[in-house]
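Agenda item 2: flavin-adenine dinucleotide complex prediction
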Amino acid sequence: MIDADIIISGLGPTGATLAGLLGQRGIRVVAFDKLPDLFPLPRAAGLDHEVMRILQELQVADRVEPFIAPYRPSEYRGMEGQLIKRLDATPPPFKLGWAPNYVFNQPALERTIRSRLTELPTVRTECSAEVLDVGQESDHVWADVRLASNQQTTRYRARYLIACDGGSSPIRKRLGITLEDLGFDEPWLVVDAIVNDDKLEQLPQTQVQYCEADRPATYIVGVGKHRRWELMLLPGESLSPEFPDGELWPLLERWLLPHEGKIWRAAAYRFHGLVANAWRHGRILLAGDAAHMTPPFMTQGMVQGMRDAQNLAWKLERILRNQSPASLLESYQQERRPHVTTTTQTAMALGRVICERDPEQARARDERLIEEQGGSISTTFRQNLIPGLTCGLIAFDSPGAGSILPQPFVRAHGFEGRLDDLTGPTVRVIAIKPLTDEDRNLMHKSLSPIGGILLELASDTDRASEAGKFFEEQPTLSRWLIELDRTIVIVRPDHYVFATAASPAEAVTLITQLYISITTS
Ligand SMILES: Cc1cc2nc3c(=O)[nH]c(=O)nc-3n(C[C@H](O)[C@H](O)[C@H](O)COP(=O)(O)OP(=O)(O)OC[C@H]3O[C@@H](n4cnc5c(N)ncnc54)[C@H](O)[C@@H]3O)c2cc1C
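Presented output:
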């Protein structure tokens, strides 16, 4: 007997997000976590606009507002304290409908996503429920789960199982899936503190990377009074996960003394760059930290896992509804692995700038960086460091394919808000030039087998009330398409652009191409 469509092992941010995205699609999910409650201490400190867009889809973006705050610029300081590099976000209007980066509180975010799961009738969650073993047959997958409530092991069956069971993923190990080491392995101490009011203004007002050879360090301005220090550990220093208090305060005294704040948590970590060599084994797939780990210099670890969830949700839905063959899942690793690898390599490159321990090399790095920027420091936009899709289900030759659809604020009949809230996470074809009735009919016809929607940009707010039309508050989407010299965009349910077209006829061909690529093996 099948208990659910999907079993999820692990209810961290990846598993909870996936459960929510599937549950909102009416997919039956049973999700287990071995812990009695979520992990209560801080880990991730930064998230980005793609996560906010996912939270928007989960209908909890407004609920997270109390515990997120704008991410400050990151200043890289060299051996003499001089500015050698600066990262920041692009100013408004924000292309994806949210500020590019925020600081946040991971336990509060996870609590919010889990609260959303309780509102979804097809999602069932079990805590204190450890997945002990998994296996699969030709038509189903099973998981043996020990429930603390009765100390019994119960076998659950489903069509697919997603291992979201974290960096030490027992399922990944059980399947014998190896990790590729991208070549980064550094021990760091992470200290989270709640700082007294009068001390807050004496501390730096930006994020700071102290690129100092004797001890590279990071300082992060968190939400409210939360401040984080990440300090590289030197040979011989404690690597125990819970760092001894006696060794902690001397490391912090440059910024904070014991009477100036309270330690929330201090823990040592190894910052790695690792990526699984296989993300799918038949009906079992890996997602989140189970599939990859990145050093936190781009604040992308959790973000990558939530992207995995978004990539999987629409594909699993299509397969479970018999709209696409199981081979659609091949595109999961094809798309996500190169994206994760590139993003992790960029984080590692930033880490190497920070982690230089040789004073001579560090001084040479300072000079080189300043010289490369023409003598004065220019700002790098963080979101430009994140790649688009380069492999998988996109029309490679098409301009803009693989990038993320901009999300303007729009008006339509009886609607004012962000574009995704108008359309939902479906295939969308959006035209920014008026269509003839004939073109419109042809496009509707080519779209109907996929189940997507067609939207047309209205020239003014009055026309936005006509069926299938919308008006952009600011020309975020239209300007982007005009810059590509295109008038129509074809978008996947996860907001990645499949293709752009210069004419309705070209769009019809590309829509058919999308249909073929997601329905044939
Ligand atoms: C110091 C530090 C700083 C970071 N900074 C950032 C940042 O700024 N931005 C960012 O995006 N990311 C950051 N990260 C990374 C981020 O915290 C992780 O990437 C994220 O938590 C991974 O989510 P996950 O759901 O994949 O795994 P996890 O959060 O590890 O969740 C896995 C879950 O699986 C459960 N589980 C394990 N085994 C079983 C089993 N057998 N049965 C049932 N349940 C099981 C566990 O109990 C756990 O709840 C940081 C991490 C650290 C350590």
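Discussion summary: The pocket of flavin-adenine dinucleotide is lined by residues 9-15, 32-35, 39, 43-47, 130-131, 164-166, 170, 190, 269, 288-289, 296, 299-303, 305 (CB under 6 Å).
Owner for follow-up: CH.
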